[in-house]
Amino acid sequence: MGVGFFLIGQDSDPERVGSLQEVPPSPTSRAQRLLNVRRVLIGSTIAVVGLVVVAVSRQVGQASAEVELSSVVGLSKEIADGEEKTTKKAECRDTEFGDKCWTAASWAKSDGIYAHPEWYPDLTPQSSIFKFQAIVHKFSPKHCPNAPCSKGDDHPQTHQASPPAATAPPHPQPTAAPPPQPAAAPVAKPQEKPVQIKYLETKVNCSSPLVPVSSKSPTGQLTMTCGCPPPQVLDKSGGAPRCLDPAGPSQMTFYMYRAQSDDEYLPENVNAADLAGLMWYLHNEVVPSVPRKFGVTRILRYMVTMQNTQEFYGTYPKQFGPFVAFDSAKCTAPHCDSIWKKYGFVIGCQNLDRYVANYVRDFKKPQEKPEQAEILIRKLRGKDRKAEDEENQEPHKKRSSDGHGSEHDQQREHSREVSTRTSTDTTTTTVFTTITQTHIHDSFHSGIWYSLPGGCPNSTLGDKSDACLASMPGGHCNVVNGEKDCTYNAEYAGEIRLDDLSGILDEKNGIRTYDDWWKNAYIWCMGAVARGERKGPCKHNVEYSVLTDEGVGTDFWNGKHDMEQGLRRMNRVRQLFREKYPHLPDTFEEPACL
To answer: How many C-beta atoms surround the C-beta of residue 494 within 10 A?
Structure first.
């Protein structure tokens, strides 16, 4: 009886490769039989090795090698395809300069690791860009869809294609670096625009009810004179001057402020604020972030003359229209079109919530008894919000048994509900709502935000066509007259640097820029600790922390809810502007947002 073998090898019929063949016995010599057995064993061994190689090659996804090896060891393609295939992993790719992933990984390497070191465990600022790519890919794959192929240092070609990092630490190896040395000259700041506004007189003494206001001399030059606080109008018909409420839109001149980066653009299709509103915004949105949100570096001041349209005042007897938010020079509120078309490009306003940040715009220290102001401030600072909330809940306790309560109670409850919404919700729910309710019971008023509609306000900055600009020119003009397309003029009135306001620069210790203060100072500290020149721990500087209500490395922003500290910060802003622009008035009387 014959012996059957699984033959895979050279002597097989090509049409029967891989089949089970029964070999009949033949009268061969012992040497021939041994030779046949050896050939069979060699062929079997080759087959086993071939199968192992095929499995390995498939596991790493090398399809071409699989086909080649299959043909070498004699496996048919049908058998190879019938085997279970392994799942291929996502293709790796090293990020390159210009990619969205490169931008995200570069930010993580230059800024993110300093602001949030806990996000990048086991990494340092000297780690390769690809290690940061791996972290971004893991936690934010939409920014880095692919994991890096490189596992260590930067790829030579990618590294050469990249520009030198502007935010790279000055000492790549802190443990061996020398201490930072002050530069021979201070860091150059961006060149500022010249201020074209000139006043003959910037100060004037007035008797109540008159206050200093901007006016023009007989020769047409700007000067300060005594007038009524806006929007009131002066009446001298009875002999003694009187300030009366206006019968229509008033023309008013006052300062507006903006927090801005070093980028330059016109004060049109933007939101601005009075000084209290600006500080409210900085304290909530900008200084708690490291680096600062939106790259804010400076405070810009504008002298704004405004007069809204008679069309609006005739329908809603108010000096300001509804506030709308702008993003990239586009109005983001859904009712913008209806406002511009019906009432013209009116300036809007919105009061802010002092419970979020306690900045007031109209505090004046009494001249006769200044100690009364100090007592009042201490009382305000010590107010218990819980007690305030309990007081505001009293109407609910007095409701009638049927659960409806009085009409007054229902109106008050509605106003409280509106006050808890965002600013956008407030303006879209009721188009002409401009007041955000605050339950701090004193005679002071919160900061204000303004909206300044410009040309083609319903499109973003790069999408404003000539046709749109012609049909919707906006409200900015040279000589304000209250027409639909001429509601305001904003003249540049100077700027100050946020670094100077916070007081974070220190030339003697090498802190010449904001990056030196919040980022590089930590690196230098770590190097000094490693060299034994100082004791740790080193701390990351931040202007303000919402968790502690304090800063690290500066105390300028401490106490967001302390009205006295808020007044101190606002006075510091006025002082910096006064020192830099002594030929301009410190302040103007501001109209209320009603």
So the answer is: 20
Please tell me the distance from the alpha carbon of residue 449 to that of residue 590, in angstroms, as a whole number.
Answer: 12
| β-strands 348-351, 321-322 pairing | parallel
Selection from 187, 153, 150 nearest residue 170 by Cα = 187
pLDDT at 177: 37
Across the strands, what pairs with 298?
260, 497
What mean pLDDT comes out for the span 522-530?
Answer: 89
What is the average pLDDT value for the chain, to the nearest integer? 75
Alpha carbon distance 288, 99 (integer Å): 29
**Token pair 């058998």 is at which residue?**
79
CA distances from 122 to 8, 126, 132, 457 (A): 53, 11, 11, 48
CA 253 to chain centre: 31
**Do residues 322 and 295 make contact, with C-beta atoms less than 8 angstroms apart?**
no
Query: Per-residue confidence at 390, pLDDT binned at 50, 70, 90?
Result: low
Task: Return the closest-CA partner of residue 311 out of 124, 457, 482.
Answer: 482
Percent of the chain with pLDDT over 70: 65
Q: What is the DSSP string of 156-221?
A: HHHHHHSPPPTT--S-SSTTTPPPP---SSPPPPPPPPPP---BS-S-----TT-EEEEEE-TTS-
Integer Cα distance of 319 and 59 in angstroms: 74
Local confidence band at 462 (pLDDT 50, 70, 90 cut-offs): confident
CA distances from 33 to 15, 29, 40, 541 (A): 25, 6, 11, 87
For residue 326, with 0-12 CB atoms within 10 Å meaning exposed, 13-18 middle and 19 or more buried, which class applies? buried
- Spatial distance between the Cα atoms of 9 and 15, rounded to a whole number of angstroms: 13
Torsion 371-374-378-379 (CA) sign: positive
Nearest to 253 by CA among 214, 292, 225, 212: 214
pLDDT of residue 573: 98
Dist. CA 497–CA 262, nearest whole Å? 10
What whole-number distance in Å separates Cα of residue 180 and Cα of residue 519? 14
Q: Name the residue with tokens 């499109």.
A: 459
Strands (E), 8-66: 21-23
For residue 314 the two structure tokens come to 């005739």
Whether pLDDT at 420 is above 50: no
Name the nearest CA neighbour of 259 among 294, 225, 234.
294
Per-residue confidence (pLDDT) for residue 42, from 0 to 100? 53
Q: Look-up: residue for tokens 């600072």?
A: 381
* pLDDT on residue 36: 55
| Residue 500, amino acid | D
CB 330 within 8 Å of CB 457: yes
Please give the Cα distance from 512 to 189 (Å, whole number).
10
d(CA 350, CA 274): 11
d(CA 469, CA 70): 70
Please state, in angstroms and rounded to a whole number, the distance separating the CA atoms of residues 279 and 2. Answer: 100
DSSP H/E element including 581: none
> Tens digits of per-residue pLDDT, 248-273?
999 999 999 999 999 998 999 999 99
